[in-house]
């Protein structure tokens, strides 16, 4: 197990190149199995979740050529060697289940263990099963193996929740299904738009990606393509918070402007604003005041920040905004609606000196600013891990973060990146 040792009290400032979106790269890797021709992905982040997903693709028969420095991956799958995956590999990454749709579409069957991933709460697979069954597949859920089989035909599908991974899985399954498919109550996240754009470049006929109603007309086969992974706006938001709580100025390069229109309202509530150059694909943050201050609701009411399905505020940024609130003058209620275990990490922040009251598994009240002090804490999941890293950057003294492999799953070389911005951080 590796750990990070961080000396707090340093300003985080400078220029940071935003990596590709992990949540787009993973389903795009799975989608490459839909064709026997080469698929090249650009702007692929160098994170362990991508490495695990590529390992799984190799098991299924993909020939993988990766240039980590250039951020490119080419997958070629002339034939599928198998439609199953080991429990050991599936346990490493939840999105291994995203291979179910491509395997069903191309091979007519899939056999996968229940997926692993972060322990942030129950994440149901029922929506995937209902979608596959609507397309004509037989689906059996055993304790150790999930099995799917059948010839797929287009159908009208109403999702019982706007699940991102279920939308992606059903979308990938339906592009080779006979006839026309409609996915209603579809998730709208930017990474679904990236996936749909890639499938379109392969020859799929898709309308409505980015809205809650996606229409697909099945085709007989798909071709190879070159597709770009969009920017990771969750990583961008994390670095923005690190800069804001330490009083630094930050320029982010390689961004896609659209997602930040969704994020700006929540950040503005804490006094964090930015300017974007769409032409140069850059975002510039310059602190306007020495101290961050909460913007209260009408009548001087304490504000509440809740997450939800896109274009609501994303759950993956709740943890870092809680750290931002600890350094902002005022009080805020955070309402985590998506995952019942995501907020348990606040115990580590309280250990560091944060003024936080946890009302229940879904709600915490944060009052700031409060001085944070270095200590030894463990990273329970990707987003909590980066939040604790940011807390350590602003804390007085030295902090040690254990189990940093969780951070590696979603963030590219945090030691190098934060060191370049002025942090005193070491991996041991």
Total DSSP helices:
14
CATH superfamily of the largest domain: Enolpyruvate transferase domain
CATH first level of the largest domain: which class?
Alpha Beta
Report the mean per-residue pLDDT as an integer.
94
Give the CA-based shape.
globular
How many separate structural domains? 2
The CATH architecture of the largest domain:
Alpha-beta prism
Alpha carbon gyration radius: 22 Å
Largest sheet, strands/sense/barrel: 5 strands, mixed
CATH topology of the largest domain: UDP-n-acetylglucosamine1-carboxyvinyl-transferase, Chain
- Total DSSP E strands: 24
Strand content: 15-25%
Word description of this protein:
This protein is an alpha/beta fold and 428 residues long. The protein has two domains: 3-17 and 231-427, Enolpyruvate transferase domain (UDP-n-acetylglucosamine1-carboxyvinyl-transferase, Chain, Alpha-beta prism); 22-228, Alpha-beta prism (UDP-n-acetylglucosamine1-carboxyvinyl-transferase, Chain). 31% of the residues lie in helices and 24% in strands. It has 14 helices and 24 strands. The strands form six sheets. Strands 17, 18, 19, 20 and 21 form a five-stranded mixed sheet that branches. A four-stranded mixed sheet has the order 22-23-1-24. Helix 6 (164-174) runs parallel beside helix 7 and helix 8 (233-246) packs parallel to helix 10 (318-326). It starts with a strand and ends with a strand.
């Amino acid at each position: 197990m590796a750990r990070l040792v961080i000396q707090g009290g340093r300003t985080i400032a400078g220029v940071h190149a935003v990596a590709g979106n992990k949540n787009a790269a993973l389903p795009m890797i799975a989608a490459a199995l839909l064709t026997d021709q080469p698929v090249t992905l650009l702007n692929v982040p160098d994170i362990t979740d991508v490495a695990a997903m590529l390992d799984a693709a190799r098991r299924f028969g993909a020939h993988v050529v990766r240039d980590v420095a250039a951020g490119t991956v080419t997958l070629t799958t002339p034939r599928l060697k198998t439609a199953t995956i080991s429990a050991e590999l599936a346990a490493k990454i939840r999105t291994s289940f995203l291979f179910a749709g491509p395997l069903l579409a191309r091979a007519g069957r899939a056999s996968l263990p229940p997926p692993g991933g972060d322990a942030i709460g129950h994440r149901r697979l029922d929506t995937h099963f209902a979608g596959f069954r609507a397309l004509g597949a037989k689906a059996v859920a055993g304790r150790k193996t999930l099995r799917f089989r059948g010839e797929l035909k287009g159908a009208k599908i109403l999702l019982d929740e706007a699940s991102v991974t279920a939308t992606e899985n059903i979308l990938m399954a339906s592009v080779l299904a006979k006839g026309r498919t409609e996915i209603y109550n579809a998730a709208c996240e930017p990474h679904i738009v990236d996936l749909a754009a890639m499938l379109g470049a392969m020859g799929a006929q898709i309308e409505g990606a980015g809205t809650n109603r996606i229409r697909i007309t099945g085709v007989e086969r798909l071709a190879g393509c070159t597709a770009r992974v969009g920017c990771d706006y969750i990583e961008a938001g994390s670095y923005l918070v690190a800069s804001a709580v330490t009083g630094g100025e930050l320029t982010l390069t390689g961004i896609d402007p659209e997602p930040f229109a969704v994020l700006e309202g929540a950040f503005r509530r804490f006094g964090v604003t930015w300017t974007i150059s769409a032409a140069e694909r850059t975002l510039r943050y310059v602190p306007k005041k020495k101290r961050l201050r909460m913007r209260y609701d009408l009548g001087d009411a304490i504000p509440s920040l809740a997450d939800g399905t896109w274009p609501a505020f994303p759950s993956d940024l709740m943890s870092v905004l809680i750290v931002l609130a600890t350094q902002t003058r005022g009080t805020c209620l955070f309402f985590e609606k998506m995952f019942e275990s995501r907020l348990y990490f606040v115990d580590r922040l309280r250990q560091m000196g944060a003024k936080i009251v946890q009302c229940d598994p879904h709600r915490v009240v944060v009052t700031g600013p409060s001085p944070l002090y270095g200590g030894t804490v463990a990273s329970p999941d990707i987003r909590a891990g980066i939040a604790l890293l940011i807390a350590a950057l602003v804390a007085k003294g030295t902090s040690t973060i254990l189990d940093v492999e969780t951070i590696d799953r979603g963030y590219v070389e945090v030691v190098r990146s934060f060191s370049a911005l002025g942090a005193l951080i070491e991996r041991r």
